[in-house]
Structures are given as C-alpha cells and as structure tokens.
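Bumping my old thread because nobody answered last time. Still need a sequence for this structure:
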C-alpha cells in the first residue's frame, strides 16, 4: 500500500505543480543582461522553452550582448530558469516578483458603468465592456459620434471605429487612431477610450482640443485585435497575435503589425507561424489588417494623420521601421516627435525616445504605420506608451491616467503642428494666383 501511495505522488507531481497545490510561486518578470555571445545563445534557448514569454525584445533573434532582456517566467519554471542563469553567470534581477497576482488584480477592475464617472477610464475593461461602451457613447452623443463597422475579426467579432465629428464644416481632414493591435498591450485600448471621452468632455473647455476638433475629425478604433484581446482575458494574458489558425501547424495567430504590405516578411519578421512576429501567409492575409487597410485606402484623401498606439517603452516613432532608409519628410516628422517628447518631459517629467523605428529599435517590416505612410498619409506615427519595463505589459491601473495624459499631449502637439501646414497650402490654392 505504501508503495502504491509513493507511486501515485510521483506520477502526479507535475500535475500538482501546475495546479499550484504544491507551490504558490508566482510568475515573475526577469530583467536579464547577457554579456557574451555564449550567454546570448543560452538566453535565446531559455526564451523559447519553459513556456516563457519574451517581452523585450519581441523576438529571440533580437537578443544582443549588453542589452537588457525582459522575460516573463511562469511560476513553475521560475526557480529552474533563475538557477540556469546563475549557473552561467548571466546577470539578472527580478523586476516583477508577483506578476500573476498583478494580473488577477487588474482583471478584477473590469466592472463599471461608463456613465458612472471618469474613474471608468482608469481601469482595464473586458472586450464586452468595450463593445458596450462603444454602443453607449454613440447613443449618448448621436450628433457627435458615429460607430462605423470597419470589418470583422477571424472569429467574426466586429471591428468598430468611432468617428468623432463635432461640427459640419466641409472638406475637413481627419486623424486615424487604432489601439490594441497587439492583444497584451492593455494600456492601448485604455487610451482610445480615454481619448474619446476627453474629446467629448473638453470640447469648448480646453482651447487646444477645441481648435483641433473644430478643424479635424477623428476615427478611433479601440480594439483592432478583438480575438487576441479576448484571449488575454480568458486564457493567456501574454498573448500578442490574432487568433487565426495556420495551415500545417498547431501554432495559432499572425502578428498583425507584420502583416501589412511594407517590405513584408523581410528581416525583422518571420515566416514561422510559431513565432511572435509571424508575418502571415501573404500581406493583408488577416481580416483585421485587411479591414483597416481597406478603410484607409477608401479615406486616404481625408485622413491626414495615422497613429497606432502600442506599449511599452515610451517611444514616439516615425517611419520607417521596415527599412533603414529615411522617409521623404523625415526631418519634418522628426521635429514633430521631438517637440512632443520635449512637451511630455516638460509637463510630466517623463522621458520618451523618438525617431525612426529602424534606428531607435530594430527592423520591423509589415507595420501599419509604414504602410499608411506609403499609401500617402505622410504624417504617420506609432506611440509606445508607458512604461520602460518596471511593469511592462502589466502597467497598473493607477498608471493609466498618467500614460494617457502623456499620449494625449503628444497627439495634441502633432495635430496642431500638422494643422498649420495644410491649412496654409489650402488657403493659398483657394486664393488663386496673385493679381
């Protein structure tokens, strides 16, 4: 009988570890710095095993000597991974010792009535809550907000963009903002909700916002990747891609920000469906990226500014990320993001890096911002919101307001700068040749 009991415990030890009945070790986020190429190779192997989640950089290919790596390690692998790093003298520290507890806490903050006040905008919300908010907002502001069905996801969830138009001036230009292209970046949809709420609440109160809204419409897509976002709430908080199955493999999903036709699937993307940066079988293969691309193509005459909201690392990015070549109006774009970063530093004491993506991060082909730029939307940007890695994708709800305020200031700065330029050109054309 004793022998049978010992055998039972042995056979079920792994199950007990997984269910947490033998251990209460939380998932952790480690900051790791490889000092040699040998350590780089070890870390690449670690990041593809133990069901770890590579936060920074997004791909093992981009792990380099003397560059910090942020790695989520599940609780049942934490001790093994840390012992392995110590055995090879790889410098590391625990950034977040209680990642799983943080995730549970954030998921408890999903309830609330959108009409109950501004605190709604400083919590994270389920996809269902966001859909409900979209419907309520369009219903409550019928003369200012219109919900537009842009398309649907692989799992047939609707992609709704809100059009904010606060007056009927003819020939108005517009700005497009999409959020949530990467599922785990929860601060991104939070910003889209915040931005719409702020625009409606502070029109005719905040002078800059009033000036912008008087002269420009906005299209705001709160969740571009609804299937992936839903999955982060129900199955895997660290999920990045969409949820489309791929032929010939059990691996799921395409990185929507590698799926646009901008140097598609070259260096910085992967043809391997099991990677986080899988480019898809062909450009715009995914219904989500195709829906956005089709909408932008059909509105490219009016949409003057394209903005995609991401996290984390605090960056204001301009084209190109898909090539090391500079954009035609690189200097103009660079000056805009520099001014925006300076303003954030001045008002909020926070540092944002700025510049072309390929120069300040690494090559990332197939991005929506580069594609939009090549389409003809010459003011194209990607914002990487807070933070720089302390919490990463698990930014606490208490930091939502600060992150959104910083992004809002950057949006205002860029919108006002862009408005100066085409208005002058338009008015001069309307005036005709000098007498």
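Sorry it took so long. Here it is:
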């Amino acid at each position: 009988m004793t022998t049978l009991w010992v055998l039972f415990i042995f056979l079920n030890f792994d199950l007990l570890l997984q269910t947490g009945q033998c251990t209460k070790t939380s998932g952790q986020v480690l900051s790791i710095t490889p000092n040699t190429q040998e350590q780089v190779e070890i870390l690449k192997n670690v990041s593809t095993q133990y069901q770890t989640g590579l936060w920074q950089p997004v791909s093992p290919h981009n792990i380099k000597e003397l560059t910090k790596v942020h790695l989520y390690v599940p609780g049942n692998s934490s001790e093994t991974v840390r012992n392995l790093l110590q055995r090879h003298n790889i410098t590391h520290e625990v950034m977040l010792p209680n990642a799983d507890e943080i995730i549970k806490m954030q998921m408890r903050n999903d309830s609330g009535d959108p009409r109950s006040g501004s605190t709604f905008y400083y919590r994270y919300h389920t996809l269902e809550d966001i859909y409900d908010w979209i419907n309520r907002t369009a219903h409550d502001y019928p003369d200012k907000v219109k919900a537009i069905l842009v398309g649907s996801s692989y799992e047939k969830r609707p992609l709704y963009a809100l059009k904010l138009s606060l007056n009927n001036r003819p020939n108005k230009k517009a700005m497009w903002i999409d959020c949530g292209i990467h599922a785990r970046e929860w601060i991104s949809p939070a910003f889209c909700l915040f931005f719409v709420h702020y625009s409606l609440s502070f029109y005719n109160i905040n002078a800059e916002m009033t000036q912008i809204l008087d002269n420009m419409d906005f299209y705001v897509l709160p969740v571009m990747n609804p299937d992936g976002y839903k999955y982060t709430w129900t199955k895997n908080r660290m999920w990045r891609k969409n949820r489309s199955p791929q032929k010939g493999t059990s691996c799921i999903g395409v990185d929507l920000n590698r799926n646009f036709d901008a140097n598609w699937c070259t260096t910085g993307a992967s043809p391997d469906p099991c990677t986080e940066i899988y480019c898809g079988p062909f450009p715009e293969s995914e219904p989500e990226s195709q829906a956005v691309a089709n909408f932008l193509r059909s509105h490219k005459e009016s949409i003057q500014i394209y903005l995609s909201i991401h996290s984390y690392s605090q960056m204001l990015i301009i084209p190109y990320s898909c090539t090391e070549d500079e954009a035609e109006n690189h200097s103009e774009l660079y000056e805009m993001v520099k001014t925006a970063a300076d303003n954030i530093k001045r008002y909020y004491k926070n540092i944002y890096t700025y510049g072309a993506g390929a120069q300040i991060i690494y090559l990332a082909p197939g991005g929506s911002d580069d594609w939009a730029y090549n389409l003809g939307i010459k003011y194209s940007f990607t914002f990487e919101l807070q933070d720089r890695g302390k919490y990463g994708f698990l930014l606490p709800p208490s930091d939502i307001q600060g992150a959104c305020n910083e992004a809002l200031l950057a949006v205002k700065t860029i919108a006002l700068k862009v408005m100066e330029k085409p208005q002058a050109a338009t008015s001069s054309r309307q005036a005709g040749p000098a007498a």
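The chain has 14 helices and twelve strands. Let me know if any region looks off to you.
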